[in-house]
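QA checklist item 7 of 12: single-chain prediction sanity check.
[x] sequence parsed
[x] length recorded as 311
[x] structure emitted
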Amino acid sequence: MKCDNCNANFTDGVFCNGCKRNMDFSCASISEAGYRKLGPERRASWRCPTCKLASVSPKSTKAPEVAVVEPVTMEMVLSEIRCIKTQLSKLPELLEDVKSIKNEIIELKAACDFNSAKLENLDARVVDIENKVLHIQQSDLNYSNDIALLKRDNINREQWSRMNNVEIKGVPLKTAENLFNIVECIAKVVDYTFPRTQVNYIARVPTHGSKQKSIIVSFINRYIKEEFVAACRARKHITAKDIGFLEDNQLIYINDHLIPEFKKLLTKVKELTKQKGYQYVWVKFCKIHIRRNDKSPVQIISKEADLNKII
């Protein structure tokens, strides 16, 4: 668009209602912000400074227009009064609506205050419950620790009760067998004899996961038991044929009598030490011993947590 005053191109400007010309803001002598503030009606009737001066110039010969005032009649006055009365007739109804809205606002405020108090009470109860839960969790942790300690003590006591026992596996089962004779035959093979009076009891017991039954020998003297186990280990290989079972090369194993928990732990220790390159794993005094090599110190594994020692 071109300004009709300076012929310059512009994108936004004003339109004079007097001379019917489009002008930019500079030629119109008005700022863009000032023009925007005029509002739609005043902008529609806006006139440029030239047209404004022409309208008030004393050289104008045009006679001023004289407004024609119509006479005021009684009917006109009554009509206006009736109109006002009609509008005022709705005022009581509006007042009632205002009162109703005011009462609803009061009730809403009371409900908000009530709910706010309830929420504060609920927050306090939630905090109290959270504290109780934390206390219960701490108590459960303490109880769990206590139970673990009691369980550990019970395992140790049960294993301690077997300290004098030897478990013999691999001896074939036959009818009318004499377990004392079998144990004495093993003692002769390993070249370690002891009197029968040192045996507290001897019996066959089922083996978990197997149809075979182990022989449990309970010694009165623990040191004789340890010497007997050491002599058997020194022999390394003992077969059923060595103790009178002809043509039966089944291996016989003589070890400490471990409780199931320690047997499971021993299996894990053997697997882990094999992976880590340990050379020695053995049981003595019902305790699991490990040693990486001849120059390494001996370590004792007595619980699951001790598996971390195997590195």
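[x] summary fact logged: The first helix runs from residue 32 to 36.
[ ] second reviewer sign-off
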